[in-house]
């Protein structure tokens, strides 16, 4: 996968919204740049005694509407270009659902499956200290992303707390419940994917019980999306992870698959079997005969190379940036729906926001309150995007981007350019 052009893809989406909004060139120019990017070298003493140096980044695209917010990714393909694109998408995502945050993102170029747990912990702590000058509860609040988890957030929180000399709960979100995390946060992104899918089905007058779903990626987002959509009556006919794709047109036993991953090597589905399951390639998975496709792995999975063969009538983007603009144009021209990442996977950042509010107040909500508030935010955001897209005769991404870019542009204009 070409990484160097992910930011170009983000800029193309911004340009498209700016054109539709007739955004003035000055504000457009401001929004096309990240406010701050930090690249750090991270020496780590490995278990065998030798020193490995990893490269990490933290990028803050915009703080116009509030502190920057965004996850930290550990992956061998991380680049500054990718982290910058992801930070820009976070700005639009927070604005689409109207929470008072800007966008940020972090990443370390590392394949964590090749490191021991001690090595990963040392790397996380070193990365935390390296980016500490620019993160903070009111400036930039990290969260989990690909290959990072509540445990990683706990190490980050502890590292910052050691340096500050007191416990700093609101420095990260996605923490474990024991460390002041929010109930419902772990499932929030997948729950948001489910709410978005249900909202779409309602508007298309489709019955979830007659809806087949394919999910690419079986990590935090993919597995929870599959589980909750199945609980709403949908039939999950295929899921995949890096070990391959698992297909059963009669429906998959998602709870068993999640249980299997909780103890399997690298939390993969590798070796999972049940009656009726066949293995297909990841490429085939995307092109299966289904109603809904939820890409929940990485960027640029649906491209101009395979878009024409996608059979689903709707793509609900669990991952960030899984569909290239060219592929999306083709899908939309064929009458298909793409629920854009900045809306579809916003559940995570919405509940991160709830977690931050709870951490600041040291007053914690029930899971029911968290889920109800999340549902309300997603329902409102989906309705706003759907209605604007209909009114302006645009696809859902342009609808969401028009709402988001307009909100951020107005914040930039109201603040004025300093000095
Ligand atoms: P994760 O590390 O928990 O899971 C990623 C999954 O994708 C794993 O099952 C992995 O095996 C699989 N995968 C990777 N490459 C694949 C490929 N080529 N084909 C099939 N499967 C592949 O990560 P996650 O937190 O679930 O994040 C997934 C996506 O969702 C990312 O784009 C991330 O930025 C986005 N996202 C995550 C959150 C969150 O709260 N975790 C929030 C919003 C968006």
Count of helices?
14
**How many strand units?**
12
Radius of gyration: 20 Å
Q: Looking at CATH, which topology of the domain at 186-344 would you report?
A: Rossmann fold
**Could you say which structural class the secondary elements and strand pairing correspond to?**
alpha/beta
Distance between the termini: 41 Å
Tell me the CATH superfamily of the domain at 186-344.
NAD(P)-binding Rossmann-like Domain
Residues in helix, %:
40-55%
Average predicted confidence as pLDDT: 97
Shape: globular
Bound molecules: nicotinamide-adenine-dinucleotide
Feature tags:
single chain; five-stranded mixed β-sheet; alpha/beta; Rossmann fold; seven-stranded mixed β-sheet; 14 helices; 419 residues
What does this structure look like?
With 419 residues, the protein is α/β, with parallel strands linked by helices. Among the domains are: 37-166, Rossmann fold (3-Layer(aba) Sandwich); 186-344, 3-Layer(aba) Sandwich (Rossmann fold), CATH 3.40.50.720. It has helices at residues 6-21, 25-31, 80-96, 117-131, 150-164, 185-203, 220-231, 254-263, 282-286, 325-333, 341-344, 347-361, 367-391, 396-415, and strands at 36-45, 51-62, 68-75, 102-109, 140-144, 212-216, 235-241, 244-247, 278-280, 292-295, 314-316, 337-339. The strands form 2 sheets. Strands 9-8-7-6-10-11-12 form a 7-stranded mixed sheet. A 5-stranded mixed sheet has the order 1-2-4-3-5. Helix 1 crosses helix 14 (396-415) and helix 6 crosses helix 7. The radius of gyration is 20 Å and the shape is globular. Bound molecules: nicotinamide-adenine-dinucleotide (NAD). Residues 144-147, 189, 216-222, 240-242, 282, 296-298, 318-320, 345, 348 line the site of nicotinamide-adenine-dinucleotide.
């Amino acid at each position: 996968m070409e990484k160097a052009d992910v930011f170009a893809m983000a800029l193309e989406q911004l340009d498209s919204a700016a054109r539709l909004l007739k955004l003035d060139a000055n504000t457009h120019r401001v929004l096309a740049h990240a406010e701050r990017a930090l690249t750090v070298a991270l020496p780590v003493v490995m278990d065998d005694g030798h020193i490995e140096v990893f490269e990490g980044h933290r990028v803050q695209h915009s703080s116009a509407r509030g502190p920057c917010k965004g996850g930290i990714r550990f992956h061998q393909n991380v680049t500054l270009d990718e982290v910058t694109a992801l930070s820009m998408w976070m700005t639009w995502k927070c604005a689409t659902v109207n929470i008072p945050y800007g966008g940020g993102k972090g990443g370390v170029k590392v394949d964590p499956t090749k490191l021991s747990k001690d090595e990963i912990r040392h790397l996380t702590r070193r990365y935390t200290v390296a980016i500490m000058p620019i993160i903070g509860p009111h400036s930039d609040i990290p969260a989990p992303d690909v290959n990072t988890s509540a445990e990683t957030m706990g190490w980050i929180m502890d590292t910052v707390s050691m340096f500050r000399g007191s416990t700093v709960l609101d420095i990260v979100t996605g923490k474990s419940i024991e460390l002041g995390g929010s109930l419902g946060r772990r499932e929030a992104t997948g729950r948001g994917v489910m709410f978005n899918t249900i909202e779409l089905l309602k508007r298309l007058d489709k019955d979830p019980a007659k809806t087949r779903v394919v999910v690419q990626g079986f990590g935090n987002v993919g597995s929870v999306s599959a589980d909750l959509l199945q609980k709403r009556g949908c039939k999950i006919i295929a899921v995949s992870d890096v070990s391959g794709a698992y297909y059963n047109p009669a429906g998959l036993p998602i709870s068993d698959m999640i249980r299997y991953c909780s103890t399997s090597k690298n939390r993969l589905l590798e070796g999972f079997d049940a009656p009726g399951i066949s293995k297909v390639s990841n490429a085939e998975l995307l092109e299966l005969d289904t109603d809904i496709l939820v890409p929940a792995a990485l960027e640029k999975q649906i491209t101009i190379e395979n878009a024409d063969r996608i059979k689903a009538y709707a793509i609900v983007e669990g991952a960030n940036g899984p569909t290239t603009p060219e592929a999306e144009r083709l899908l939309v021209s064929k009458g298909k729906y793409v629920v854009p990442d900045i809306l579809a996977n916003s559940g995570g950042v919405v509940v991160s926001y709830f977690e931050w509010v709870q951490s600041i107040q040291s007053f914690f909500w029930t899971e029911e309150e968290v889920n109800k508030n999340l549902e309300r935010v997603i329902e409102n955001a989906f309705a706003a995007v759907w209605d604007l897209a209909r009114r302006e005769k645009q696809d859902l991404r342009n609808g969401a981007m028009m709402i988001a870019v307009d909100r951020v542009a107005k914040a930039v204009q109201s603040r004025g350019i300093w000095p």
